[in-house]
């Protein structure tokens, strides 16, 4: 391969040589059909064209081009057609060349933020002759947190020089006032034209966005996502992928190909959401109906249980959960959960053990209570369970007399706590049941251990039978009107615990009666 072919070709800028070969009449005829913005670009291609188009003799070309712009007001008397086209269509700062969209119509300038500070002055700081007479155009702007009228510095200096050089200052001021009102009318019309043009631009952008939005949904429907769009509504998808709908660019196949991987992730999330909101709740409702029949109308081969899970727990057992989360097209006719109910006995035992363990963790007996003579004052009564090992005590913790639970001033023992309390239920996997405290809305009755200790037994080992055999009598020592100096057994004390004041130990509130006083005229 020749070495020359490996060299990178230089990109040469095209020269408008063909324009110079044209007759000027033909050139002007072509220029008349150009937009003023294109005419500006053409005048800046080379020095020769610039001199030709910026010459005063070419004004008719610019005027013809301007008339092609719908609604654009005529050129103000103090501007040339070329300057007017530059002001309206060249979106660059007149000082530094930065891109600027906003036109300061009344002072007929485009300034960036920095150049505004340098080239505009507050009207209040101008000469009195300017403040007292409407002779200079002003712009209402907010610059450096100052919202007031501003004057162009160059226009102010030019006016002051002309005013100082004039012989008839009154006539000069009258002429400038007329010029001010004339320019203001022109610029007000230009400002209205620009506002309408901006509104039209926004309408076009909104129309393009609507077309793009419609194209996106049509493509999604082609991929089979029509039912999901109807279920959730188009606004849900628009908020999920805002950048796709915010753009006004045409949605081509290439652009769609770049967006498609992200759409797959979004549509999968909507699919899962629809299953959780629409499909799974219907299947859980079917499960509730079947479970009710399973419990109330058992067959001959249905095993019996002393305690069964609620339907909210049944729905979370693996065989039932698998059926609930089967594909949407899976038929649910007849008894879809029959196979899962056949496996229910294998799961009930584990479920019961889990609940027992959670309840056991709630039973927290204060460490200060033990069966030692020192702590109980020598009143500990031996029981059949007193010699139990620590491991056996842990396994039978729910059988202790102090294993009591409260809900709304009601007291429940084990296992009545499961049947007497209202269970938390939910039809949604997004709301897990959580710990047993949240399931039953219960709390451990901390006072029970104190009451058992006052009766002379160790709450770590004493059972209900031990307390009944002890048959202790207690009297309220608290000097309060509600106590009435009553004598109670341990069950009455538990039932009336809310009448006792809060104290670190019920030893301060309750006193154990001597055996000789237990039958003292109370019918016990």
Automatic annotation (TrEMBL):
Residues 16-65 form the F-box domain. Coiled coil: none annotated. It holds the Pfam family F-box-like. SMART domains: FBOX (SM00256). InterPro entries: F-box-like_dom_sf, F-box_dom. This is F-box domain-containing protein. The lineage of its organism: Eukaryota, Fungi, Dikarya, Basidiomycota, Agaricomycotina.
